[in-house]
């Protein structure tokens, strides 16, 4: 596929799309340091490799100090309630306990911010804070798999998607546990800045550029051994490098040096989905990137990612992303 991809007309970059958006992390006693660190790393770190303005970042506490994070670390917030009022994105890291009451001041601050149009984001058990503030009625959400049943029972008004890594319901965004917060934050960067900038941030984090929110949280089967994983990883690279080609299960199994049955089983174990579904997802993700970063026609993009017809691309794209390729390009092109 390199020739077809390289010849596509490029779009000029616009890194000012999210210029100076203020991100505020809500902090409190019992704060999860890892989840706060995700938010600070992605939104608060100076990024000289990115041209133009980046997010501004503050932490704000609504409890009197000194504050103590999980593990005993004492800390203080960098910002004030005024920063919370000015925020365009507020992130709530994991809450200190699902049975811990959420202070009324915190609920009121989040309610007021939401009414102003602020995007409210939670990571892991931070969703309990959003629910206590009454923000989740009729909203699609997710949380760590170990909290799903408890949360669903306590807050039946929310629409819980138990298997999702993260859920973007416009001004309410929620993620599963811990590292899924990285995926959600990168998703936000992608929405605000586009694929190229999100990929740059992911590279600095030594992360995969993007995982779909609908990807399953965990796989219970054992992962393949090292040799099998290496062979399968090489096969994944081959598919991604040749998305415009036809791939059969038998040809991919042969490439991996496995029987068809063994290949299908181990592929699903490694990726969390069957071969055909994974290839369709990869084609759609590549199509999305091309819609954002190139001026190629939708017909050319369909051919470049291995979908035989424009109608087929539109069908799969709408099923996966909820909008047509043309609508997506209007909203998210750089």
Please sum up the structure shown.
The protein contains 15 helices and 10 strands. The protein is of the alpha/beta class and 334 residues long. It is globular.
Q: Output the number of helix runs.
A: 15
The neighbouring-strand order within the major sheet is 2-1-5-6-10-9
CATH architecture heading of the largest domain: 3-Layer(aba) Sandwich
Helical/strand content category: alpha/beta
Q: Strand share of the residues?
A: 5-15%
Q: Tell me the domain tally.
A: 3
Distance between the termini: 23 Å
Which geometry do the CA atoms define? globular
CATH class of the largest domain: Alpha Beta
What does the main sheet amount to? 6 strands, mixed
CATH superfamily of the largest domain: Class I glutamine amidotransferase (GATase) domain
Q: How helical, in percent, are the residues?
A: 40-55%
Please provide the count of β strands.
Answer: 10
Mean pLDDT: 88
Radius of gyration: 21 Å
Order of helices and strands: HEHEEEHEHEHEHEEEHHHHHHHHH
How is this structure best described in words?
The protein has helices at residues 2-6, 33-44, 81-86, 104-115, 127-132, 148-154, 180-193, 195-204, 226-241, 249-256, 260-271, 275-293, 298-304, 310-321, 325-332; strands at residues 22-27, 56-61, 67-68, 74-75, 89-92, 119-123, 140-141, 159-160, 166-169, 172-175. It has a six-stranded mixed beta sheet with strand order 2-1-5-6-10-9. It has a two-stranded antiparallel ribbon with strand order 3-4. The radius of gyration is 21 Å and the shape is globular. Strand 5 (89-92), helix 4 (104-115) and strand 6 (119-123) form a beta-alpha-beta unit. Helix 2 packs parallel to helix 7, helix 7 (180-193) runs antiparallel to helix 8 and helix 10 (249-256) packs across helix 11. It is 46% helix and 11% strand.
